[in-house]
């Protein structure tokens, strides 16, 4: 059973998510929070597998709440909730440690599937979403890594691992990367694991951010 906490300042939104998710036999909503401070308290106490975190909440926003939870070592996966027209804070939420994000108007099956993906330890960041997040990030003054020295950890990667990192940053799945490089999916998984380990990154979301901030790929590249 995957346990969940829903953090959103709108009671109707929380009730809607609870209703949708209660129909799933493997999902259980164990708590709710109406603001960021309450979210930190509830999640710290219940330690759910996944926390659905709204960004714009009173007292403490979802970005700060996410950062506080993960900095203090609470073992939960955070899924950011957004209404999208790109929430300006989504990229920062991913940098703070969120495992991905979902649209508030996502169909029930997509919501449930996304929760399962994150609970299993994977990042929820579809190619189209990756592009929109990155485009929003690099549009900001001073964003990106083009004008600063690349992180020294890049030098620890082999040529193939650097190639894999670039494909990850474009939002490709392991299966897509395998097809692009003409290797097995198992080999791709090994490369991805090696990249994350060498760079000291937690998941694919952090890898995407790292790659763009360090100029491994540039916006608009195919």
Automatic annotation (TrEMBL):
Domain HTH luxR-type residues, every copy: 150-215
Presence of the UniProt keyword DNA-binding in the record: yes
Residue positions where 4-aspartylphosphate is found in the record: 54
Response regulatory domain ranges (all copies): 3-119
Origin: domain of life: Bacteria
A Pfam family assignment: Response_reg
InterPro entries referenced in this protein's UniProt entry, alphabetically: CheY-like_superfamily, NreC/VraR/RcsB-like_REC, Sig_transdc_resp-reg_C-effctor, Sig_transdc_resp-reg_receiver, Tscrpt_reg_LuxR_C, WalR-like
Keywords in alphabetical order: DNA-binding, Phosphoprotein, Transcription, Transcription regulation
Protein name: Response regulator transcription factor
Transmembrane regions: none
CDD domains: LuxR_C_like, REC_NarL-like
């Amino acid at each position: 059973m995957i346990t969940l906490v829903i953090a959103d300042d709108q009671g109707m939104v929380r009730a809607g998510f609870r209703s949708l998710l209660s129909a799933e036999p493997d999902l259980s909503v164990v708590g709710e929070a109406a603001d960021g401070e309450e979210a930190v308290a509830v999640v710290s106490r219940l330690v759910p597998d996944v926390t659905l975190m709204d960004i714009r909440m009173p007292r403490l926003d979802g970005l700060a709440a996410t950062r506080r939870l993960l900095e203090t070592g609470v073992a939960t996966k955070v899924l950011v909730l957004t209404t999208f027209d790109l929430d300006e804070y989504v990229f920062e939420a991913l940098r703070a440690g969120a495992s991905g994000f979902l649209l508030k108007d996502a169909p029930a099956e997509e919501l449930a599937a996304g929760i399962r993906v994150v609970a299993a330890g994977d990042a929820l960041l579809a190619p189209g979403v990756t592009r929109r997040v990155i485009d929003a990030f690099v549009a900001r003054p001073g964003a990106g890594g083009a004008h600063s020295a690349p992180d020294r950890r890049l030098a620890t990667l082999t040529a193939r691992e650097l190639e894999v990192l670039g494909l990850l940053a474009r939002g490709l799945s392991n299966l897509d990367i395998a097809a692009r490089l003409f290797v097995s999916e198992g080999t791709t998984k090994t490369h991805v694991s090696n990249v994350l380990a060498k760079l000291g990154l937690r998941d694919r979301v952090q890898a995407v951010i790292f790659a763009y901030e360090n100029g491994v790929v540039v916006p608009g590249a195919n």
